[in-house]
Design a protein that fits this description.
Strand order of the largest sheet: 3-6-9-12-15-18-19
Radius of gyration: 15 Å
Number of helices: 0
Largest sheet: 7 strands, parallel
Order of helices and strands: EEEEEEEEEEEEEEEEEEE
Distance between the termini: 24 Å
Oligomer: single chain
Structural class: mainly beta
Length: about 170
Amino acid sequence: AGAAPADMDAIDLDGSAGIVDYNLIHDFRGDNNDGLDIGEGCKDLSIHDNFIYHCLDKGISIGQKSTGKVFSNVIAYTGYGIALKDQSMVEIDNCTFFGNRQGVAAYEKNPGNLGGSGVISNCIASNVAFGSFVADAYSSISVSNCLTDTDTMGGNNLFGDPHFVNPTFY
């Protein structure tokens, strides 16, 4: 198999409602390749129990005023574990992030479209290079009951070793 196209997502949902569950998504290595790309106003989408790894850009990208719940996913070795942008509003619960450049990032992608919003709870972010849970000035995130071994977040969040057994082999 040759190189992945520069702009290809494993699953691309636009303007939908529904459930994305129990998928194994991996090795999308182009510059703009996501495991899941959610946009165009998806409403109340449920994304759970997916294993996403080795996606060069984003494990899960959520934008364009989409809403939903993301829970019980494992996302490893991606650029962004989950990206929230363009006025998306998402709850993220019980997810594990390992070896990503960023765990969850909320940011304004397109000037004037504002950023994303996330309520993040009960997650683990380990071996993250540039921030476990981050938001720019146009976005907001709330983080509670999470564990990270790279950032000190304070509040009811913990800093420590998650004691994974052989995490580089999932």
